[in-house]
Design brief:
By secondary structure, this protein is of the alpha/beta class. The chain has two domains: 179 residues, P-loop containing nucleotide triphosphate hydrolases (Rossmann fold, 3-Layer(aba) Sandwich); 75 residues, no CATH class. Helices cover 33% and strands 22% of the residues. The chain contains nine helices and nine strands. A six-stranded mixed sheet has the order 5-6-7-3-8-9, with helices on both faces. Strands 2-1-4 form a three-stranded antiparallel sheet, with helices on one face. α5 crosses α6, α6 runs parallel beside α7 and α8 packs across α9.
């Protein structure tokens, strides 16, 4: 486990300064949660950490660095989970969660529509599907899954990548309340001992899962001091401290006035 440090990060699109000299330390093996109004730059920060800013012809002006405390670069050590499950409709659940492994096969295998996987990889994938409760859906197409099952498959694909740093962009935001709670608990269990950065609009989600909860706000955006809830994660809903902190965060968020949509 290692800390991941964002140091003096700045991002500008033309005349729009998203954030400047932003610093953030994600503690190794723990969840860092990031709240903020729509359009403030949460996804932009996630993309900067992943090395995706400025690579999409968007005229982004990027500076700063992302450092791993163990001295190795962050490249190729990241798994990403977004709000959309991004499952390919023509692939089964098993084929979808092993997509990364198949894409990394030799060029000769890539010429095949469905490159064969090793028995070891298939066994690993089936083990992960069992953990997320989808072992009986391995040969099913995504169109036959519920919304919660699709996000379980997306979580399984994230686990298959087996990366130490996991970036999560509103992965449970489109789910109903009960399914969301169940997926939060499952992700917390299965991503234990990984360094996780979770973006969410939901203060309760951040407080249940986060070891440190930050609020990104302002123009240019800046991070508030971290809220560090007590107790082990995922925290119980009958935690009185949790409910009090949720009220504080909701009050902060409702007074923000950003444009609709995370456009930056």
């Amino acid at each position: 486990m290692f800390d991941v440090i964002v140091k003096n990060a700045s991002l500008r699109f033309g005349d729009h300064l998203v954030f400047e000299n932003l610093n953030l330390t994600m503690q190794g093996g723990k969840w860092t949660c990031l709240l903020g109004g729509s359009g403030v730059g949460k996804t932009s920060l996630l993309r900067l950490i992943a090395g995706l800013s400025g690579n999409d012809n968007s005229r982004a002006d990027v500076s700063g660095e992302v450092i791993c405390e163990d001295g190795f670069p962050v490249n190729h050590r990241i798994a990403w989970m977004s709000q959309e499950d991004l499952l390919l409709p023509w692939f089964t659940v098993l084929e979808n969660i092993t997509l990364g492994q198949r894409l990394r096969r030799t060029w000769g295998d890539r010429l095949k529509r469905r490159p064969l996987l090793s028995g070891e990889t298939t066994d690993q994938a089936m083990s992960i599907l069992e953990k997320v409760g989808l072992s009986d859906k391995a040969d099913v197409l995504p169109q036959h899954l519920s919304g919660g099952q699709r996000q379980r498959a997306a979580l399984a694909r994230t686990l298959m990548e087996n990366r130490p740093l996991v970036l999560m962009d509103e992965p449970f935001g489109a789910l109903d309340a009960i399914t969301r709670l169940n997926l939060q608990d499952l992700a917390c269990e299965l991503l234990a001992n990984r360094t996780v950065l979770l973006i969410t609009h939901d203060p309760l989600e951040a407080l249940r899962l986060g070891h440190a909860v930050y609020h990104l706000r302002g123009h240019p955006a800046r991070l508030t001091d971290a809220i560090v809830p007590s107790g082990t994660t995922p925290r119980s809903l009958d935690n009185h401290e949790l409910m009090s902190l949720q009220g504080t965060l909701l009050d902060r968020l409702r007074h923000e006035s950003f444009s609709e949509g995370d456009s930056v």
